Amino acid sequence: MSIQSDLKSFLDVCGELFRFNSRFFTYGFKPPYEFSEFLKQCYVIGYKSLPLIGLTAFIMGIVLTMQLRPSMADYGVESQLPAIVAIAIVREVGPVITALIFAGKIGSSIGAELGSMKVTEQIDAMEVSGTNPFMYLVVTRVLACTFMLPILVMLGDAISLYGAYLGVNIHSNTSFNLFWSQVFDNLVFGDVLPAFIKSFFFGFAVGLIGSYKGYTSTKGTEGVGRSANSAVVVSSVMIFIIDLLAVQVTNIWGL
Amino acid sequence: MKKQLINNTKLGFFVLVGLLFLILLLYMIGRNRSLFGSNYLLKTRFENVNGLIPGNNVRYAGIQAGTVKKLEILNDTTVEVTMIIDTEMEQIIRKDAITAIGTDGLVGNKVVNIVPGNLNASIAKNGDLLKSKKPIDTEKILNTLSTTNNDVSIIVSGLKTTVERINNSSAIWDLLSDDQLPNDIKKSARNIQLATLKAAAISNEFQLILNELRNGNGSLGMLLNDTVLVSNLNKSSHNLNLVSLQLHTVVSDLQKDINSGKGPVNSLLKDTLMVKKLNTSLDNIQMGTDGFNQSMEALKHSFLLRGYFKRLEKEKAKKDTIPK
């Protein structure tokens, strides 16, 4: 394959993704709403991911604290450890790590689920039976991802900060009150709100790319695996790209 | 359907907890940034705000009192800082409080410190302008510190050599380890004390004497203070002068008389012939007395006078026995 055809297929995918996206925005907010399916997806996507996200966030909090401690101690600002860990977690580590885990768990499951539905022609059957498969399958999942990820990020932040509190207390003795007042003293709205807003985009990207990969999967069972795989890969990369854009935007706004 | 309901309940709980944490986070931050709760504004002006930014803390006597709301450049040398202050500080901050820009720790965020002013001043109201103090320039401090350090290093090297010398000299250590020395020093000190006491007594006496002198008591005092005496003395010295002049003339006359005159003194002193004559006369007198002596001896033995001499001897013998 030449570079030209590579480029052509890349642009092809980009175009199709964009069309899929505009289709979501065209149909997504028109009745009939699939509300109970949306809640079910929220439950599966959000609630069921919490243990995994919580565990990784907890470990991340402890590890980040312990990794930062030596250099902070070198500069003699060990007492500022809660502040720096809080800023790191709330601004960057919390949203990105949560989104990546989320992409690994939910992106792949959506890709595989929709892909297998596609290759077993369940989607076609659904269309015949009068249900709009795009509304029922894609819109509910994408919306569920979009709204659940920010909540997961918030809970992940909380658990991470608790992990950081334990991490700080491994070597020194900081009271819970002091830790939290240090955390809140050093956080500003400019730390919390951009992180919260960008996690909506992360969730949307994961849901949309997973659905797209599943919805457009071909070539039988082999295609299901491939769409699950590429859903994770592309959504992970997309998360970093969105993160890059987000940091540019927040810098421009001076947050 | 029942399962669906349970799942939805779980989901609702999950979402609520997540949103609660978000709200808590935002509320805590907002409270720290004085966005909630009542507050009022105070202003101050600085020449240089040293990197103060909106959102920095304002402290009154070290306690969090509010935050910096905005910075406004009024002209090329004045920056106006508007601060949001909590209402609970309204009864505390007075109009003459002084603001200063400091840092949170040595390298931390900038803070505005409000230092209490006079107790008599009235309470600062919304929008009042507080006085400011020039912020301390860290660079200046470091420069001063470096010169101080240089000085200290010179002093320390000097001290080091001094200490080495002291360590190397045995005399000082002998002096320090001598047990007798303190006693000696104590004794000397005591002696010095006694001496000074005596000196003090002496000087007191002296003082008394001087006082008496000044008052004209005592002979010396009289001498010093009596003006009549002085005039008398003057007179007598004048008389003395006259006497000495007369004496002088007498002496000179005498001298003249002796050297050139004819009186007996002159002849006595100058005439050698007379001296010889005198000498022979004296010889003759001696011869005469010798002859007289012989005659007297002869008389003692003559019978005419022997009785008289014997009686004299007897009386002499009686006188000698009586005291016995």
Please provide a written account of the structure:
The complex is a heterodimer of chains A (255) and B (324). The model of chain A has no long low-confidence stretch (mean pLDDT 88). By secondary structure, chain A is an all-alpha fold. Chain A has one domain (35-253). The N and C termini of chain A lie far apart (45 Å). Chain A is elongated, with a radius of gyration of 21 Å. Chain A has 9 helices and no strands. In chain B, 63% of the residues lie in helices and 16% in strands. The N and C termini of chain B lie far apart (179 Å). The model of chain B has no long low-confidence stretch (mean pLDDT 82). The A-B interface holds A 36, 39-40, 42-43, 46-47, 50, 77, 90, 150-152, 154-155, 157-158, 184-185, 187-189, 192-193, 196 and B 4, 7-8, 10-11, 14-15, 17-19, 21-22, 25-26, 28-30, 32-33, 55, 107.
